[in-house]
User: What shape does this take?
Amino acid sequence: MKVVTGVVGNDIHVVANRLIEISLKERGFTVFNLGVNTYLEEFLDAIVETDADVLLISSLNGEAEGWCRDLQILKKQYTFRKDVVFMIGGNLGVGEMDPDALVPKFKNYGFDLVFHQVDLNVGLDTLENYLKAHA
Amino acid sequence: MSAPNRKLLFDIGSTYFKMAENGTIRHYFRDFNRPIFDDLMEKCGDTIAKYRPEEIQICSSANGGLSTLIIGLSNSFSLKYAINIAFNSGINIIDTVLYHDIDTAKPPVEMIDVVIVVGGIDGVGRIFDDRLFDFLQDCAYQNIVYVGSADERGYLSEKLEKLVVLDNIITDKLKINEGALKTYLTDLYQADIMGKEDIKHLYEITANQIYSTPYIVNRALSHISDRLDVADPFIVIDIGGATTDIHYSSDLVNDNIVGEGGYDRLVFKKLGVYKSRESLIHTARQNEFVYELLNYLNVTENILEEESEAATKVLMQLAIFLVLYKVSRHHSDYVELKLENLNSIVLTGGITKVLNQEESETIIRFFYKKLLHFHQIPGIVLDKNYEIWTYGMQEFTNEEATKELS
Assistant: This one.
C-alpha cells in the first residue's frame, strides 16, 4: 500500500513528520513523504503521480482548519484511479474551540479518518483496520 | 603551433555579436540586412583566421530558441519538473497542458519544435489514454519525447510514431531527475541551429558544439562569485533585445525541486527592450504600480511612445521592475522567489550599456520599498563588460565541448 504524507501549510514540525514516516514504513507501507510546509494541491498531485492508496496529512500548529477546508472542492478537480483514503491527524485546533466539533468538521471537509490529539499508533491501527474493512 | 588553452569565444545574440579573446570582449551590432555568418566574417574574420576550429567556441540565442509543449499529469511534479529542465536547457517558449484538462485544452496553432509528455513515477500505469492521442492529432510538432513512468513506455511507443523515450524525470521519491531530458533538449537545440539556413554556417568555423546562450550563462553562475563582487543568494537578470532571462539560486525558492546545478532559469519571452518593445510597454501599462513608478522617475506616460535615449532608459528600468514583480509574492506564477533574502542582484545583457549604477539602484530601491516595504536593498552588480557568459564557456574543456558533428 502506498501512502503520501506530509505536514500541511506553514507548519515546520519536522520531527513529528519523520516519526510518521518511520512508523508507516515499519507497518509495511510504501511512503512518499512531502515533508513540512506542503500545500494541499501538492498532496493531491502526489497522489496522482504515485497512484497512492492513502493520504495522511499531519498538522501540529493548528493551521489545518484553514488549509484543508477546500479539500472537497479540490478533490472534484482530480481524477484518481482508485478509492483514496483521506486521513488527517495531529493537533487540529488551537485557541478557543470545541474539540468534539473538530472530527465532524474535518469529515465534512472530505477526510475519511480524523484524529485530534490521538496517539500515532492508535491512529495507524485504525487506518489499517479501515483499509481491511474496505478492501 | 597553437597554445593548448587558446580559445576564441563568441556569443551570437539577436542584436549583438560578442567576441572574447584573451580576456578582452568586443561587441558588434548586427547588420540585420546580411546573413549572420557573412556579417560575422566581415566583422571578425581576421581574428577567426588566427584560430583553429577546435579553439573556437560559440554560444547563440540567435535562432530564437525552441518552442515546447509540455503535457503533464500534475502541476506540482510533472509540469513543474519539465518546465524547470526546459528552461535550464535554454528553451524559451513553453506551453503546458495539464492532462486532466486535455479535453478542453486548445492545441497550439504554431508548429511546436518538441512535445514533452510526462507523468507518474515508475510502477504507475494506466495513466494515458486515447485523449492524449486525440489531442496530439490536432497538434503540429517536429519531435516528441516521453519522460514519465516506465510502465507506459510500451503503450505510448506503439501509439505514437517517432516517440523518443528517455529516463523518467520523476524519481521514486518524487524528486527531479534532469540528466537525460536536459541532454536531449540541448542536443535538439544544436540540431535546430544546424538546420537553420541563417546560422548553420557557423559550424564552418568551429569544431565544437554550439550551445544556447542561456544554458551557458546558467553554467557560469557557480563561478560568478570568484570574479565579481557577488554574495549568495543572488539573481542574474539578463535583459536582452528579445527576451529577459532571470537566473536564480535554488535557495530562493520554497520548492520541491532540488536540481543538480543549484541555479535555475526563468524566461519572460515578451519583456525585451528591442524586438519585444511593444509587448514590454503593454505589460507595463497593465501593471498596477506603473504610474506611481513613472512619477517616481519624474517622467510621464508619454515617454513610452518616444524613441530617445531617455525613453530606452525608462524601458530598461520598467523591465527590471516587471521582472522582479513577476517573481515576487505579488504575482504567483511559476516561481515565487524569496526576494527579501537576496544578497546580490547582477544585471547583465544590453541593459548594462544603457543604465548606470545609480539608475539601476533607483528602480530596485523603488521595488523594495513599495512592494516589500524594505529600506535596504541587495548589492547591485553591473556586468558592464558583459563577461558572465565567458565564465560558462571557459568551464568546458575542449574534449567536453567537442562533439561528433554528423
Observations:
- Chain B has three domains: 8-63+196-214+390-401, 67-182, 229-382.
